[in-house]
Amino acid sequence: MVTKTNSLSQIALQKFKKNFWGVFSLCFIGVVGLISVFAYLFAPDNSQNANQMHVSIHSKSPGFTVDMLTIPSQIKNEQSFLDKIFFGVKNTDTEIPIATFSVNDNQLTYTEYASDGLEGVSKTIAADFIMKNSARQYIKSVTFYLGTDKYGRDLLSRLLVGARISFFIGFVAVFISLVIGVFMGSVAGYYGGKVDAFIMWIINVTWSIPTLLLVIAITLALGKGFWQVFIAVGLTMWVEVARVVRGQLISAKEMQYVTAARALGFKDYRIITKHILPNIMAPVIVICAANFAAAILIESGLSFLGIGAQPPMASWGAMIKDHYNYIILGKPYLAVLPGLCIMFLVMAFMLIGNALRDALDVKH
User: Fold this and answer.
1) Domains of the chain in sequence order
2) Where in the numbering of this chain does the ABC transmembrane type-1 domain appear (predicted)?
């Protein structure tokens, strides 16, 4: 008779599958990750950073529709297919929201769109590229499903493209914090003594500095920009990982399997990486889920302060900064929508952290 035995990882996986909110959050994060990678395939405005501005249609309500005249540019746009997918289209054409148009004698006469009941300017251009039968090829009806921001950009596209920064900063920051934290915590916990005292001094000094202040200092030292923020956030999040790894390693190094490894003559590096770390990673995984959420919030705060991702790059925090005054001006959704995106993504990571904590708890 064959008895079926389950490993601890299989048991943890089964317990995780039974947690509805954990599985739901994992699926939600997977969808956000897919949108982040292929944002320009989903975004109605697939120009780089979804930054196609039309000031005449700024702050329009969701569902707003307008005719858009596209005047082709003479500049040749040479972009690879992959470049367009991952970084957006370099749009050199001129787009003009219009109210009315007519084509006579190979000339296009149009009236620019004007809001608040005003009458737009009428213009006539010699349009060799437009004929009566093909006018609609260059004039299309465009619908802004979530409306436009204060610069006349498509809000839905900005939200989709902005997900990329908030999502990937979690991965980069957690990776940096894992590399530094696991190394520092392992060395401190395994060797102890003066090495432990020195590393703990570094940890305590770093821990005592307010996180946001430290990130601001690192960001100002490295300069404003996309990758600088990623590195700055990662360099401030390794402390908690290091403390947990150190504490786990101090207790694990006294276990019999470590004593046996030493008796067999294994080197310290192999004992730490092959024997101890795989057995103490459960609490580290839970901390990483929480650090994902913390990294998203820190980046949003930096963008709100103006030292995060720089314009015209789309960022949820920057979108809140640009539109928070609209909360009292009658269009709160311009600031509320990116705020809800941040809240849902952070909540998803926190729920996954709780689910992992329950699944990896050997006492239950």
Assistant:
1) 54-144 (no CATH), 155-359 (1.10.3720.10)
2) 163-353
